[in-house]
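Hi R.,

As promised on Friday, here is the backbone we talked about, encoded as structure tokens. Could you run it through your design pipeline when you get a chance and send me back a sequence?
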């Protein structure tokens, strides 16, 4: 049976930017250390612990993953991009409190996808990393366009995101299980994100339409995630 038949709940897009003051504060105060570290270690495993020396974190938010990338690979320069000014303000505050050598290799820029056709960034990256941005995009094609635009030949790509449950009841069960003690704003956002997430089959079609299906693969990950990874030709 086609797995897509099992996805009975229709996708409901959510706002692309997370920049409400209370929202940003809640995310800045939340502890995502374990899941963020697990994602970076998963990246290391898949790329053979060699992502190169120019790393891009798309949809970096408050900078959690960007900081971990810079710390994990001390020979690499890292750029975090996000469209939300308040989120980036938190990222820059965290960078200012980090070890001085990180500030020499890590920077943050505000930008919205898609980037300008002429290229808002002239650098091409040896690795493009993206955590939980895809489900925010009203047009998911802009993510894959950006990956192809900014990834150097041979660049390693790793995208991790939520995947949409089969029903509203399954969404509520995940919210109750995963976010039982979280502030209401995080519970609200998690619920909206699960409704806005894509299925692996939908992401596979996105890759085919972007001409990336031969280079990147998509697979389910644990109970509620999916991952896309591979190297650009």
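Update: got your reply. Pasting your designed sequence below so it's all in one thread:
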């Amino acid at each position: 049976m086609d797995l897509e038949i099992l996805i009975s709940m229709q996708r409901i897009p959510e706002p692309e930017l997370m920049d409400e003051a209370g929202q940003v504060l809640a995310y800045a105060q939340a502890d995502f250390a374990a899941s963020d570290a697990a994602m970076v270690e998963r990246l290391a495993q898949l790329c053979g612990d060699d992502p190169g020396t120019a790393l891009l974190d798309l949809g970096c938010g408050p900078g959690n993953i960007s900081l971990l990338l810079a710390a994990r690979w001390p020979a690499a320069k890292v750029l975090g991009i996000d469209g939300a000014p308040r989120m980036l303000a938190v990222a820059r505050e965290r960078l200012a409190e980090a070890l001085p050598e990180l500030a020499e290799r890590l920077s943050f820029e505000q930008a919205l996808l898609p980037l300008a056709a002429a290229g808002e960034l002239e650098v091409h990256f040896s690795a493009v990393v993206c955590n939980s941005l895809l489900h925010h995009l009203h047009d998911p094609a802009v993510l894959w366009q950006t990956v192809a635009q900014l990834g150097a030949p041979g660049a390693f790509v790793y995208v991790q995101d939520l995947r949409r449950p089969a029903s509203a009841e399954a969404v509520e069960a995940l919210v109750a299980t995963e976010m039982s003690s979280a502030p209401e704003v995080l519970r609200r956002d998690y619920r909206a994100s699960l409704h806005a997430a894509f299925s692996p089959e939908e992401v596979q079609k996105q890759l085919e339409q972007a001409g990336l299906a031969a280079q990147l693969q998509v697979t389910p990950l644990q109970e509620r995630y999916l991952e896309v990874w591979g190297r650009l030709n």
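One thing I noticed while checking it: The CA atoms of residues 17 and 99 lie 29 Å apart.

Thanks again,
M.
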